[in-house]
Design a protein that fits this description.
globular; alpha/beta; two-stranded antiparallel sheet; 13% strand; single chain; binds NADP nicotinamide-adenine-dinucleotide phosphate; 278 residues; TIM Barrel
Amino acid sequence: MVDAEGLVADACPTANGMPVLGLGTWQNTDPEQCAESVRTALETGYRHIDTAQAYDNEAYVGEGLAAADVDREEIFLATKVWTSNLGYDDVLETARESLDRLGVDYVDLLYVHWPANAYDPEETLSAFDELYDEGLIRNVGVSNFEPENLEVAVDVLDAPIFANQVEMHPLLPQERVREACAAHDIEVVAYSPLARGAVFDQPEISEIAADRGVSEAQVSLAWLREKGVTAIPKATGEDHIADNWRSLALDLDDEEVAAIDAIDETSREVDPDFGPWN
Ligand code: NAP
């Protein structure tokens, strides 16, 4: 349903209870702005917010959650444990600190941010199991896991892995990761779903956007949704927040999806040396 301002109200589909369009907050570190972005998103209709210990904004995200007129239970809130905090005791301690900063009793999803640095499958994941059993985290997630990392984690964890958050967009379609996730019933969450702006310069995407009278951002997000993937574009101001939300009203046809699938340019925007693919 699209209202008079062209915004889709109450219409975000969910995957296993997770809204398939969320708000990213990396680099949204100005306290007032970050809180304002989160509040604006929630009031636009977003019910999925993504942050991380490493973003240094959990407290501001928490202020945005508190300022919006939306019940906590309606919001799917995700954060991530940074790589230096992945020892057993540090996971338990810093996860509680994250909850305090966010001003909540639980998060809906807690991710291992990267399988790197202090990550040790047995140590790290047994702490995640404990947080899960205590009800402080409703779901266990991993991020930047390659299929090989996933296999190990699936074996070690008692709790199910709910989601693997990886970079994904038309210039990085992640077929291998998606297949591995599907084999274990793990949701894929696409970070940098706009390729941090790089999709705006793709002629195939611009052509579809012009034909449909929508933005390139919406085309990229609709393509991800068509793949059964959840997207968490970062947007700061109301215009981008609303533009991305409108992607929920865009259904690409088979020909459009095929044209995007056929893009042969590849780009990985987030590629630190400690990435497990390096
Ligand atoms: P992104 O969402 O692909 O792109 C964000 C950029 O696009 C920002 O510069 C934003 O500008 C702009 N933008 C957003 N909507 C737009 C629109 N409709 N039209 C034009 N420009 C638009 O990149 P990202 O921030 O890297 O990824 C999204 C989220 O994924 C992050 O914020 C974070 O939550 C998560 N993430 C996770 C990891 C991980 O390791 N797990 C890594 C990277 C990112 P404004 O800010 O000015 O609106």
